[in-house]
Input
Amino acid sequence: MKAKIKSSRSFSTIQERGFAPVIVLAVLFVILYAISPDSITPKSMSAMLDQAAVLLLLAAGQCLIILMGRIDLANAAMCSAFTVVTAVCLNKWGMKSLVLTVIVAVVVGALQAVLHSFFQVPSFVITLGFFGIAGGTALVISEASTVLVEEKMRFTKPLFFATSPLPIAFIAALAIVGLVGIAIVKTPWGRALRAVGLNQRATTYSGINTFLVVTSGFILSNLFILLGAYGNVGQLGTASARIADSYLLPGIAAVVVGGTSIAGGIGGLGRTIWGVMIIALLRIGLDIIHVPQNVQPVVYGLVIIVAIAITVDRKRVTVVA
Amino acid sequence: MGIRVKVEDVSMSFGVVHALKGVSIEINDGEVVGLVGENGAGKSTLLKVLSGTNQPDSGHFILNGKKEKFASVADATRAGISMVYQEQSLLPNISVAENILLGIEGEAIKLGTYSPRKVRKVAAEYLRRVNLDVDPRTRTEDLSFGTRQMIEVAKALAVAEFSGKPPVVLLDEPTSVLERKEIKVLFDVVRSIKKETSVVFISHRLEEVLEISDRVYVMRDGEVVSEVKPNQVSVDELFALMVGRDLTQSYFREELTNVPESSNRLEVKNLSGDGFKDVSFEMKKGEIVSFLGLQDSGRENLARVIFGALPGKSGKILLDGERYKVKNTTHAVKCGIGYIPSERKTDGVVLAMSVAENLTMSHPDEVTTLRLFNKGKMNRVVLSWIDRLGIKTPGGDTPIRSLSGGNQQKVVLAKWLMDENLRLLILDTPTRGLDVGAKTEIYAILRDLAAKGISILFLADALEEGIFMSHRVFTMKDGKISAEFPSAPGARPERTDVVERML
Output
């Protein structure tokens, strides 16, 4: 009995300090190498990370929302919509019109936060609504077909199609996510974001404007999603209304596997980076052992359930506001 | 009058902590026994041993002349002992009658079928005995907290009497969440049942213990250090026995009383809001003003409106002579106003964060350089406050969850004290649930703040606290100020006068 308590304690310290995902990543890596040493080369790893750049940006957006004790079900669908908007803008007005896409992302984020705060509707309801709105809007704008980007985005070209052996796109995404990650740890704003996720009332009573904090979180999240959309356009050169929808599950999975509490307040973008690498490696692993594409969402679903079941703090009652 | 239960030489330890060290007490027939002591003195452990929840390492009970040991709660209830818990144990979604007789339906179950009518009849009898005019069919969750507490007492009576033995009811801090009026009802009930029932009563409010008990045991560090009769000691003397120091200062630290400055800090004119109407009052710089009132008196919302946590409807507030139109809590904090909510654990602190994070929550600028947290600054500031307020914590990185209530509350205080421009501190029952040692420390801090010119709007938890801590007392009733009393050491308002204006 005593030994059991001790082991679960040391597990929880690993968990609290955020080491668990690093260990999982290492184990996964070793397993993959054991199954198929040929598939683990610097080149394949670099390609894998570039493939994971969009996932990283979407997971980072999701992570901000989850840190605030909320959830964004529109995350991936919004990325599809932003991808279509970006493609159409580029085709019609060229690079300068990217300003328009930024405005769209800010407005969407602010609108979500305002609806959520003023009408006190749970975030999953609001974002479920936006999931539908995003999907429909994307269909209308794209006229339900694939939009070819005539002139591939010049600035994303060096990111995705450079001859460098380094995963440039991933590194660029990493730099942006890392910067915000540091802000979450080191600034009063970041601490307020986590405090809102832990106890919004106590945060308000401390004189923090929690409405502004929540709004900033939603806007920043949508800006991350927009960056993900740029990544899509740059990488694929096309846009369609469902192009990024399949990212929802792996995005949430990356956040929780990385060790951010689904109940909010605990975790951060650093952990999410590890989570994204785990999911990316898992994806390769599934390909290697010939799990069909159609079955892979089953795996992500299970990963989310298992990761939350292992790590959830059962002393805290509410899970998502 | 015979001895109902005798506890002899009971000891119990949790790991290295000796919670009880050779404790012996007697509970007589028809007697209310008070049990006082600081947190950790062993009161609750003693009750848990008596109720069979915990088993002592050594020692025994003597019941009806026989040595006994309880292996479980069931053993204790068979001996006629039952407990009313701090946290209520009633099921919300069933009727009052079902709750009272839950598990002791007895004759109400015949041939395996349950007679709701019979249950209602028996339950009604117990409701009558605790002077409750409640239909036994009422769903429990539809009743007020105070009423549910009384039903708890009825249930404890029922459980104790089901044994067929003379009942003993243990009350573990039943008053900490009750309003003054409800406490009076509870005490009336205790007095009326004590003819046939022995009662053991724990409370952190010493005045209450002295009021209701026939005999008081004082516990300290797991031992019974003295046994007193209420008519032979004062609150101050009882307090001195509990903390075990020779006290040169009083419980309410009246020797630190200051004289407020002549200029006004806060002027509230015809303020109305949700639950209160047309409230006007003024506060001097360095003045402690206490507000007393029942649950629906409106005093809590008045405080929240001044802090910007609730919108006001009409009226005017002046802060240091200037118009203060509060928009939200952020604005209030910028104006030098601090607020301590009454629910410390849910509203006062962020339990999952550290002492340092909680302490610097409202004024993070004190510990940042170029808007980034500066570890060195953070440590210096946090440690200096830990030191100044005597907060017992291993360090700033300790999760605040692991601190005692009193120390958590000191962190919440420090959060506001670190603001050099603090002008007004609003406290909603800041001593609720704290032990007496922590309470006096908080009182001393408040007096000290007042002496520095900070005005304190104090929603007192107990009548004595409100009267003795303040320069002026306001009573509120039905959302309006019903009376104002000046208050000074040696010239305190009469408690009966104050209560009269609250009810």
Notes: The beta strands of chain A are 147-148, 238-239. The radius of gyration of chain A is 20 Å. The first helix of chain A runs from residue 2 to 17.
